[in-house]
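Exercise 7.
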Amino acid sequence: MIDLPTIRGRLTQARPLNDLTWLRVGGPADYLFQPADIEDLQGFLKGLPGDVLVFPMGVGSNLIVRDGGLRAVVIRLGRGFNGIEVEGTTVIAGAAALDAQVARKAADAGVDLTFLRTIPGSVGGAVRMNAGCYGSYTADVLRKATIVTRQGEVVDLSPEELNFRYRQSDLPEGAVLISATFEGPAGDPEELHARMAAQLQKRDETQPTKDRSAGSTFRNPAGFSSTGRADDVHDLKAWKVIDNAGMRGATLGGAQMSPKHSNFLINTGTATAADLEGLGEEVRKKVYETSGITLEWEIMRVGDPLKE
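Solution. The predicted structure, written as tokens, is:
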């Protein structure tokens, strides 16, 4: 038992995380903290013993929690951290706001953040992973990110300080992102909504959106600039090298590489985290054997394996 600070939010010990991830797998966290507001989060982080690990978690759309759980305090933001405000072409969104909601509200106000519409997850994850699609990336539109540091201080970070790269950014250890400020191009609301509808239709036609997945499993192999844009000369696609390795539709236990899109790892209903991660590693091995390419995970994997 650790000495925890007084809070106004909700703190749960030994909280299973499987129902908080899109893949529906994962053992318990030592603690799950859901802060009431920014001040509650500040006080908690400031008062938390320095040797206790902190793991900020969004909606679990890009995450495998291993079956043995997570030896950390998981911090999950909810109400109070999901507001969306639009001022001209500036959009300020709480870290818990869903990407799709931000895109829709921005479009209502004539601001083009349409690329966020089909990205699963919340704003915090979009910033952390420099999420993007259709040639646009979070790095293109972010003006600042606001965090609470492990010491409980509220700090603004510039895009330069975040050091955006393909599917990566740098945040201070143990910091919790609480909001992001975006600036998007102006556009006609009706045209923006029509574009998002077309994007959704295309996504549903090409991706297993009705299956239990966590989005793209592996990063595209190579040829991406520091801003996150692909270099067309070396624009390799993960799904293509997986197909070439004969791993489309491959299975392990209850895990499967989707027959519809081979870079989507899905839980068919009975998968454990070990099944999912194990199948992913089999894919990586096979791709390396057939092409010499080492795929890098895009899905974050955290926690401990289940002890036998």
